[in-house]
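Quick one before lunch.
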Amino acid sequence: MKKIAFIGLDAAGKTSIITAITKKFGFEDEVAKLTPTRRISRDTFKFLGIEFSRLDFGGQRVYRDDYLKHPEKYLNGIDLIFYVIDAQDFDRYIESIDYLEEILLHFKEIQEEVMVAILFHKFDPQLVDNVEINKRILTLKQALTRYSNDFDIFFFETSIFDIKSVMDAFSSGLSMLFDKMELVSNLFAEINKNYDAILISLFDTKGITLGEFYRPHLQLSHKLKIYELYLELQKRIISENKKVYEFSDVFENGERFSGVIEVLEFSKLDFYLLFIIEENVQNLEETVTLLDKIEAAKPQMENLILQLIQ
Ligand SMILES: Nc1nc2c(ncn2[C@@H]2O[C@H](COP(=O)(O)OP(=O)(O)OP(=O)(O)O)[C@@H](O)[C@H]2O)c(=O)[nH]1
Ligand SMILES: [Mg+2]
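Model of the guanosine-5'-triphosphate complex:
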């Protein structure tokens, strides 16, 4: 059993993030109705066949004081912290860093290792190019790097209005707990050598990414389109009880793409392999070669998954 915790000030967005991860679509109504979390709320989920306990630490002052008064009771045994900061709330940056510092201090004192994913949350799509917030976040990151001598710290910008940003942060956070996870992405990069696929990706049934290769410099709008499509495909493949699903679609700039989503079973667990390529009528041969390479790499994927699970 592994333990992951969402920690941060009140109203940072922790419960919203967990709701978004669990539902993936249609969560807006539920998020709008959320009330502050009382104490710690818990649930469990499975990833790679391993049981995870997920703790959502209510961030109101009274609770924070209590956690810090009895840190051994609340914090010991946590493997991974998602520390959530409301990136829009500049006035509370300092308060948020202070809280994080006290938590990390405890882990340092008891000499327990913990991975830390710091989420600059509420970084909503319309703020992505906003100079002020980007400057503020950068300054905050610089201040936070002082902890990187003692802890493995990673930064993410997230928003519930960009579900992909949340899933990416969650997947990358979890992958920090598995030494060899990056080998899956490396394998995809290797497969794609001499080719130009748009995406090769392996997900679990809950949409947690195990590894992916994206065409470098792929536009954000393309990525979002692909992610939307992926959610749709996943729904369809389940409801129609299919093992393979082929599709063809078009980006907003008119460029056509096609791909395949396929259910693979490794070690009694289901995974989804998704690959997307540009539709290229002139060069069908290249496409076929790429598909062959992906096909041939399945035993390697299985092997990597088995190594991860061990
Ligand atoms: N703009 C914006 N608002 C968000 C985002 N995520 C959450 N919120 C809003 O932030 C508020 C607080 O969200 P919660 O998820 O309840 O916050 P919390 O961190 O769980 O708070 P406590 O339970 O008190 O610790 C809600 O009004 C959400 O709608 C986001 O990505 N962008
Ligand atoms: Mg909450």
